[in-house]
Design a protein that fits this description.
Blueprint lengths: L4 E4 L9 H10 L5 E6 L11 H7 L7 E6 L7 H7 L3 E4 L7 H10 L3 E6 L17 E5 L14 H15 L4 E5 L6 H8 L3 E4 L1 H4 L6 H6 L8
Parallel strand pairs: 1-8, 2-3, 3-4, 4-5, 5-6, 6-7, 7-8
Bound molecules: D-xylitol-5-phosphate (DX5) and zinc ion.
The site of zinc ion has 6 residues, from strand 2.
């Protein structure tokens, strides 16, 4: 079985001490740090932008897996690169020129990801397969942590797994929303290689983070 990356979403962290929270999940075994950027327009919630990300950068060497839920994206690409984002993931609905956006992200030295809302078909990425490093399957409607996992997205994961395997390229297949000890092993069995989890990682405070992260990986006896 492939190694699975765990990317805790700091949306569920204590915003009053984000630096400490990032150090705690790094130490607890996080492989990447998932940062949800929301603009109150593309999704009905607001979070943070490049200045906050830049201040968080010195707190860990782990990759910043930045999920943009903003429209438009293009005017901000360089600001996110400068702030220290390693992967920049965008929704196709956020702008009219997905291919150009992906090229601009790579041109700015970052890996490029595409996020698919629950109602967005897998086929949308077919023409840009050579231009992406990550596909993010949203298993909730984006905007908030703590929502219930949408089962139908497992079929989309299986479909994307086949599409990615056909390319022969090492594209990360990530899933985001409602992942916990019960849903995560099922998503991994369907073919994902990265798990985003907010509420399931940050519940119980820093003393629980290592166990919470471990619970998202499939048991060796499974
Ligand atoms: C939702 C965000 C997620 C969110 C997941 O729009 O993209 O990353 O933090 O939260 P949980 O894991 O609590 O569903
Ligand atoms: Zn996210």
């Amino acid at each position: 079985m492939r190694d699975v990356l765990i990317s805790p979403s700091i949306l569920s962290a204590d915003f009053a001490c984000l630096g400490e929270e990032i150090r705690a999940i790094d130490k607890a075994g996080a492989d990447m740090i998932h940062i949800d950027v929301m603009d109150g327009h593309f999704v009905p919630n607001l979070t943070f932008g490049p200045p906050v990300i830049e201040k968080l950068r010195p707190h860990t060497k782990k990759p910043f897996d930045v999920h943009l839920m903003i429209a438009p994206v293009d005017p901000f690409i360089h600001a996110f690169a400068k702030a220290g984002a390693n992967i920049l993931t965008v929704h196709p609905e956020a702008g009219p020129h997905l291919h150009r956006t992906l090229q601009a992200i790579r041109g700015a030295g970052m890996k490029a990801g595409v996020a698919l809302n629950p109602a967005t078909p897998a086929s949308i990425i077919e023409p840009v397969m050579d231009d992406i490093d990550l596909v993010l399957v949203m298993s909730v409607n984006p905007g908030f942590g703590g929502q219930a996992f949408i089962e139908s997205q497992l079929r989309k994961v299986e479909q994307l797994r086949r599409m990615i395997d056909q390319t022969g390229r090492d594209i990360i297949l990530e899933i985001d929303g409602g992942l916990n000890a019960e849903t995560s092993p099922r998503a991994i069995a369907a073919g994902v290689t990265a798990i985003v989890a907010g509420s399931a990682v940050f519940k119980g405070g820093p003393a629980a983070y290592a166990d919470n992260i471990r619970a998202l990986r499939p048991s060796v006896h499974a």
